[in-house]
Structure formats: structure tokens, C-alpha cells
Amino acid sequence: MLELRDVQVVFDGFRALDGVNLTVPEGELRFLIGPNGAGKTTLIDVITGLTKPAGGSVRFGGLDLVGRKEHQIVRLGVGRTFQTSVVFEELTVIENLDLAATFRQPLWSLARRRRGISEAVEQALTRTGLEDLAERSAGVLSHGQRQWLEIGMLLAQRPKLLLLDEPVAGMSKDERERTGELLTEIADDHTVIVVEHDMEFLRRHASTVTVLHEGKVLVEGSIDQVSADPRVQEVYLGRRKAEDAVGNRP
Ligand SMILES: Nc1ncnc2c1ncn2[C@@H]1O[C@H](COP(=O)(O)OP(=O)(O)OP(=O)(O)O)[C@@H](O)[C@H]1O
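^ thats the input. predicted complex w/ adenosine-5'-triphosphate below
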């Protein structure tokens, strides 16, 4: 279970997170939405140790994460994807997975390991449906397949909690559908937090949604509850009206 209490992040006097409380039970697939600048990426940065909060606590599996280094948090079972790709194009799909899998292991276990692929790599390959592409170089993958490989690389590290930043951005309709199914499957035995803007995707695949706005949790609930909430409509529609007004200027 992940538990954030009264988390504050301040950049040069600007409150990027302003008293965030968030509880994500084990095995939940939680979506995080909010307009640009709401603090979504900052929230992920705080959980993964990239940004140190000015106040509050972040607890995961009963341990306080604040003050731990990024690699220590990875070892505790917290994995994230970045908006920029970490795939090595000249390596094959399976080599990329294998490299990711060894990242978290201590040296002695690597020295003892026999040649051949590990169980974690095999499971990541099967789960992401990339078996037929295992020996192809990652450079030939489609955008969607590459995103699945990145999720697979995370899975190969055996995290308990996965933090995914806009995993369906730029995907085709079919790829989005497959990704929705994949995330639901992964949440069978992991806790998953997904930052996503695509409302159609949320309607199809989201169970619980947390809306961030100006560094605070605005609303939390099912996608229907959240999208019917006047505060959420104001944050999104208010922005759209403002953008339309700017767009319509002569
Ligand atoms: N390192 C930093 N230094 C100064 N300000 C920052 C820094 N990182 C983020 N911010 C500011 O904090 C606020 C929250 O940023 P954040 O990237 O978390 O928003 P977001 O919800 O992820 O937005 P987006 O949807 O655009 O990615 C923004 O106003 C941003 O400009």
C-alpha cells in the first residue's frame, strides 16, 4: 500500500504540491489526471525519490520513502517509466528485457546466473505479448510495441508498484485497447498508478481516478463520479473556454 500524507513540494517559493493526501491500496489500478502543471509528474518524482518534499510523508509497504535515494526506492519495488524512451534500439527485444532485469540484481547473483533467459524476462515477454518479436531489434518496433517493451522492461525488474507516465500517448486505437487490457492484467498482481489525459481511454479502462489541480487533490472517485463533478468540469471546461477564446482571437 502507498500512502502520501500532507506532501508539500516547493520550487523557488512556488507550491507544486500543496498538502497532497493519497492512498492507493495494494493491487489497485489508479489513474491520475489533471490539467497541465497540476503536479502529476512532481507527485511521481516524489514517490520515486527524484524530488525531495519540503514536508509530509510518503509510505510504501510500511516504510517511509522520504530521504531515500532513487536506487534504494527502486530496490524496495517501485518502478517508473519516463516520457523519454530508455530502449536500446540496436539491441533485440529480449536483450533489452534482460538488461533491465539485471539492473536491480546484486553482482553475486549475476555471477552465479547461468546463461539463458531468466523467469522474470520470460514472464515480461509473455505478458506484453512480444514473444514473436523477441529476437528482432528494438529499432524496428512500432510506437505501440516499443511502449509495451518499456512496460516489459519495468516488469522484468519485478516491481510491486509501477508508475506509468502517459503510456498510450501517440498510440493507435487498437494499441490503446491492448494497453488498457495489459494494465488491467498487470494490476492483478501489482499496484499501478497511471498518469493519463485520454478521457476515452479512462472511460474504458479506469476504475478509480484521482484529479489533481494546483498541487492539491481536487476529487477522487469512479470516472463517472469524477467527470460529473462540477469542480472537475470547471477546471477542464473553464480551461477549454479560455483556450477557445484565445484561439478565436482575430
Ligand atoms: N524543477 C522545477 N523547478 C521549478 N518549477 C517546477 C519544476 N518542476 C515542475 N515545476 C512546476 O511545478 C508545477 C507542476 O509541474 P508538473 O510537471 O508536476 O505538472 P504536471 O501535472 O505533470 O503537468 P503536465 O501535464 O504538463 O506534465 C508546474 O507549474 C511546473 O512548472
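The beta strands are 2-11, 14-24, 29-33, 55-60, 63-64, 78-80, 161-165, 191-195, 208-213, 216-222.
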